[in-house]
Design brief:
This is Trimethylamine monooxygenase. The protein is an alpha/beta fold. The protein has helices at about 15-25, 80-90, 155-160, 190-200, 225-230, 235, 245-275, 300-305, 355-360, 390-410, 415-435, 440-445, 450-460, 470-475, 480-490, and strands at about 5-10, 30-35, 100, 105-110, 115-120, 130-135, 135-140, 145, 165, 180-185, 205-210, 220, 225, 310-315, 320, 325-330, 335, 340, 345, 380-385. Helices cover about 30% and strands about 15% of the residues. The strands form six sheets. The chain has a five-stranded parallel β-sheet, covered by helices on one side. The chain is globular and about 65 Å long. It starts with 5 loop residues before the first strand and ends in an 8-residue tail after the last helix.
């Protein structure tokens, strides 16, 4: 028998809603703590920059139990994603579990000796309360706390009228109209904002990035949706995975020339389609060596704007400010009125006590999470949405369904603490030694191993049907409806 729990879900973004739905469906009482005034996480309107849209097609960026509206375009806008999430919360009653304008300022093991955690919760006024929970699901994800960058001369730049803002605060394009704009970063948000600034009438637009990176257009060659090339099991199998045996390694060595030719062909196609040579933006790294969650989608219009000079590309980083000028690490000087820092977010769980943080994160920043969800030395605690990917919603949904069964002891393959530790060590070795690209973002990136990750979760859950078979199954992108069927084939239960 499974006893009902009072579960705290921290965060009301994509992952928090998935966790709340999974735990409440199994009969647990759920409280969702959200520090802002709205749900949606990165899709909250106050955090979205103009013209933002998903990097993934809508059929990949959805929950297993609810499709996006048919009227949505293939790559929905930020406002459409927010509306989808709000509708999801309303339909499944998650909106009644929400507590907005509340942050977690601390947590500790329960003093009464019962399993669970005592959370210190602070409201908008700063008043704090302590509340006990039987289980905590951390769903703050990887895009929670904006990363900061402070350089010498910053105060002088601001004093003479300059503006410095993180990309999450770039909400009104009027701020750049008629002004000189410098965007720091090489992510899709950086290129999106640079393009938007040109369209908004900026006087000059410069983008500063460390080095050129491979970017994938929505349609490769202008014809083939990238999901049909990079999101298929056949492509994933070109990358040696973790824990493979001697025969698999031999097969990879035999296939190596064909795999090499596949990637060189893709590189040639991208160079021609995006005019990378004309833009002086041909990456030094082979595309297959860097495939992970940091490979951005190419913003439509970005490369043509670089090619014709509407956007100036500078390689390096900010070194210091000098009056109304930003001096780069390579010595180049760029006059600026507005600096947009598209430099991402800080990873971490700041409210977790230091002793437990040491169990969660190694000195080199790698997370110690079994299946990227749970740590055996952090009882009654799990993480949803830390298994990041381009199909983030599906990843969070499957992780949430895994976590509730793990918390209830209902996984078909319920791991022992030692099995979890052994697997964590094996995965850390893989990320540090065998495929260093898998170690980005604290090793919390699923790409390019979506299917391998999903297969493990489905097997653990005990789904009788776990994947689509046959040759066709190797050439189709992940399907949320298919995973809904797989989840439905697992043993059912309710807390009572």
């Amino acid at each position: 028998m499974v006893n009902p729990k009072h579960v705290c879900v921290i965060g009301a973004g994509v992952s928090g809603l998935a966790a709340a739905k999974a735990f409440s469906t199994r009969g647990h009482r759920v409280t969702i703590i959200e520090r802002s005034a709205d749900l949606g996480g990165v899709w909250e309107p106050a955090r979205s920059y103009p013209e933002v849209q998903t990097q993934s097609p809508k059929e990949l960026y959805r929950y297993t139990d609810r499709a996006m509206p048919e009227a949505y375009p293939e790559w929905p806008t930020g406002s459409q994603v927010h509306a989808y999430l709000a509708d999801y919360a309303r339909i499944f009653g998650l909106d009644r579990m929400l507590r907005f304008n509340t942050s977690v300022s601390g947590m500790a093991r329960r003093a009464d000796g019962r399993p669970g955690w005592t959370l210190t919760l602070s409201d908008k006024s700063g008043a704090s309360t302590a509340e006990d929970f039987d289980f905590v699901a951390v769903c703050t994800g990887q895009f929670n706390e904006p990363r900061e960058l402070h350089c010498p001369g910053e105060d002088g730049f601001l004093a003479q009228g300059g503006q410095i803002l993180h990309s999450s605060k770039y909400n009104d394009p009027q701020v750049v109209k008629g002004r000189r704009v410098v965007v720091l970063g090489g992510s899709k948000s950086a290129t999106d904002i640079a393009v938007n600034a040109v369209k908004a009438g900026a006087r000059e637009v410069t983008i500063v990035m460390r080095e050129p990176v491979w970017r994938i257009p929505y349609f490769i060659g202008g014809l083939v949706n990238f999901k049909r090339i990079l999101y298929i099991r056949a492509q994933e199998e070109m990358f040696p995975g973790w824990g493979i045996g001697a025969m698999s390694r031999l097969a990879h060595r035999i296939a190596a020339p064909f795999v090499w030719a596949n990637w060189r062909g893709l590189e040639s196609l991208l160079k021609a389609q995006l005019k990378l040579k004309q833009c002086n933006m041909v990456p030094k790294e082979r595309i297959e060596d860097g495939v992970n969650c940091s490979v951005p989608i190419a913003t439509p219009g970005f490369h043509p704007m670089v090619a014709d000079g509407r956007i100036k590309a500078v390689f390096g980083s900010f070194d210091h400010y000098d009056g109304d000028t930003i001096v780069m690490s390579g010595g180049e000087r760029v006059a600026a009125d507005v600096a947009v820092l598209a430099i991402g977010y800080k990873l971490g769980v700041p409210f977790l006590p230091a002793a437990y943080q040491a169990k969660l994160v190694d000195a080199d920043g790698q997370y110690r999470l079994y299946r990227l969800i749970a740590n055996p030395d952090l009882p009654e605690l799990g993480f949803v949405g830390f298994n990041s990917s381009f199909c983030t919603v599906l990843c969070a949904d499957l992780a949430a369904n895994w976590l509730v069964r793990y918390a209830d002891g209902q996984l078909a393959r319920q791991p022992t603490a030692q099995q979890m530790r052994d697997n964590i060590e094996m995965m850390l070795h893989f990320k540090r030694v065998e495929r260093p690209a898998a170690g980005v973002y604290g090793g919390l990136c699923v790409a390019p191993y979506h299917y391998r990750h999903f297969d493990e979760l489905m097997a653990d859950i005990g789904a009788k049907e776990q994947k689509r078979g046959g040759l066709a199954g190797h050439f189709r992108p992940p399907d949320a409806d298919a995973y809904a069927r797989f989840l439905a084939s697992a043993p059912d239960y309710q807390a009572a």
